[in-house]
Specification:
Layout lengths: L1 H11 L1 H8 L16 H20 L9 H10 L4 H28 L8 H21 L6 H14 L6 H9 L6 H34 L1
Helix pairs in contact: 2-9, 3-5, 3-9, 5-6, 6-9, 7-8
Length: 213
């Protein structure tokens, strides 16, 4: 088992990332600074999102006819359902604030310069993925707020030169909103974007910690 874990660590550096997330053996070669905590904070919030999102998936039904009803059932009938949904919702907004603050600090401290270009660009892409997670999650209850917000967002996407029309059709699942819209949003929100977010955060933090240790 140890050989397998060592083999995985040699190729991914997961142990260094766990040290950051769990605040174990945190690198302080340049002294402890509050501006160094945001990467680990983001990892913790992503973990909260994965756990609460998995719990929400056990109740939510991605269907035009049942999405709103399943959310109402979660809020009113499931023990701690409203609390779990609230944690998931507000943590996603906190992630947007943290990634914005983290990126701003990197720019102000010239953390994008050689040899940290990869970490900086990974952070920018990660910020886009987190924003996409928030956008794809808002319409899932299929209420008036989420429905019309997504109408506006996809209309804006449709104005992009060359690819706008095709992009809107891809996001909506056709010319009209319906079941295909929800299933595509659900797939993006619970599979594609989380996997991409974990990968980007894992690689950028492992690389950063590796340079500071």
């Amino acid at each position: 088992m140890d050989k397998l874990l060592n083999w995985i660590d040699d190729r991914t550096g997961y142990r260094k990332l766990l040290h950051v997330v769990l605040l174990l053996n945190f690198p302080v070669s340049r002294g402890a600074r509050w501006r160094y905590v945001w990467g680990g904070s983001l990892a913790l919030m992503l973990l909260v999102e994965l756990v609460t999102g998995t719990l929400l998936m056990t109740v939510y039904s991605p269907s035009e006819a049942s999405a709103w009803g399943s959310v109402q059932y979660l809020e009113t009938e499931v023990t701690w359902g409203g609390f779990i949904r609230g944690v998931h919702h507000y943590t996603s907004h906190m992630m947007l604030f943290v990634i914005l603050l983290h990126t701003l600090l990197v720019v102000l401290t010239a953390g994008y310069r050689k040899p940290k270009e990869f970490t900086f660009w990974s952070g920018l892409i990660l910020g886009s993925v987190i924003l996409a997670l928030a956008i794809s999650g808002n319409p899932l209850p299929w209420d008036q707020k989420g429905y019309w917000a997504y109408q506006i967002e996809t209309s804006i996407a449709g104005t992009m030169p060359v690819i706008g029309s095709s992009l809107r059709t891809l996001l909506v699942g056709g010319s009209q909103f319906g079941n295909l819209t929800l299933t595509r949003l659900y797939t993006l929100h619970v599979v594609v974007l989380p996997v991409l977010a974990v990968f980007l955060l894992f690689r950028s933090e492992a690389r950063r910690v590796g340079k500071e240790c």
